Amino acid sequence: METSAPITTELDWLLRILVAAFCGALIGYERAIQRKTAGVRTHIVVAIASALFMIVSKYGFIDLLNMHDLSLDPSRIAAQIVAGISFIGILSTALLFIIQLFFHDDEIVDKLTPHIRFDILIDAINKPDVLPQIKQELENNKV
C-alpha cells in the first residue's frame, strides 16, 4: 500500500509554501524599512510555519480518513488557531490595560515610588539672570 502523494500534489504544497514565504518576506521588508523589531527573516519563518501547519491540518490525515470505521475532522486543527490567537489577543489587551492603569495614573505612581530629595549644584558665574529662569522651569515642571 503506497501512502505517498503524487508529485503534482507535492509541487502544489511546495508552491503554497513558497508563496507564503514570499508574502512573509514582503511584510518583513515593509517592517524592516520602518525599523521595526520583527523583520524579513522573522516573517518568513512565521509564514512558512503557518503554511506548513495548514497543509498538515488539511492533508496530513487523508490516509486515516479513508478508513471506514474512523471518523476524524482535521479542520479542527485550523479552527483552533483562531481560538488561540483570540486568547492571545485578549491577554495582551488586558495586560496593556493593566499597565496603563498602574503606570499612567499619577496617584498610583506617587504611592508606589518614594519621593526623593536631592540637591543640584549649578555653577552660574557672571550670569545673574539664570537663577530666576531655573526657578521658573522647576516650578513649571512641579519640582
From TrEMBL:
Residue stretches spanning the membrane: 13-32, 44-61, 81-103
Origin: domain of life: Bacteria
* Topology of the protein relative to the lipid bilayer: Multi-pass membrane protein
Q: State whether keyword Cell cycle applies.
A: no
The listed locations are:
Cell membrane
| Main location (coarse class) | membrane
List the GO terms this entry assigns under cellular component, sorted alphabetically: plasma membrane
A Pfam family annotated for this UniProt entry = MgtC
Record keyword Transmembrane present: yes
* Keywords annotated in UniProt: Cell membrane, Membrane, Transmembrane, Transmembrane helix
Ranges where the MgtC/SapB/SrpB/YhiD N-terminal domain occurs: 17-91
PANTHER family in the record: MAGNESIUM TRANSPORTER YHID-RELATED, PROTEIN MGTC
The UniProt similarity line reads:
Belongs to the MgtC/SapB family.
Protein name in the entry: Mg2 transporter-C (MgtC) family protein
